[in-house]
Give the backbone structure.
Amino acid sequence: MPEILSRLPPPAARRRALLLGGLSLGALVLAETFKPRQLLAHSRAAYDYETLIPPRFGEWTQLPLQQGQIVDPGLTETLSRFYSQTVTRAYLDEAQTLVMLSLAYGEVQSDAMRVHLPEVCYTAQGFDVTSLGERPLQLGATAIPLSLAAAVQGQREEMIAYFVRVGESVVGRGMRRKLAQMEYSLHGLIPDGLLVRVSSFNHDVESAFGLHQRFITQLFDATGPLPRQAIFGRASA
């Protein structure tokens, strides 16, 4: 018996082990208790982006475009795992300026949805992508954070502007999206997510930003309450 007792850990070590075990168990119980279970998307009418995005608005008219001319067909299967809807359009204005629009919507906003962000999607297609920071775009009473990027592949240079809606509002880059998800989780909700990407063949940042700003603003002005909420979220106070 003394031999067995000598091999037991000292009382202080046993207490620490018991304490750590109890804390781990408590963390698991709390995580399960506060795990979000209700999809925010199921608390309101479903959005059909193919019909919500108008073929003509402001100065812009939709061009016939086959799916896959903007998004590499090789990514289609990957995208379908994370998004329930994707829409790809091309528009011309009166001066024959081409702008491409891409939307990717998922009922569950998760880290896996990053697959459609330009920094991931374009890189997967062989582009060199450079982030150009973030700028506010004033839409009505709300300023949305617009992320900018440049994608280059050989002679093709594409300027990109995009934003992400998490739940009911457009949020900025990085940790701000994660914090928005966590806020919904605290209320037992799983937010949906939408990525809206606008791009054009351009090599000048300021010229492209002005063009994309005009395109997005005219889309916002042309939409009614339901499509505006579906694309841009609820207006902040």
Observations:
- The longest strand covers residues 128-139.
- Confidence is low (pLDDT under 50) at residues 22-34, 67-74.
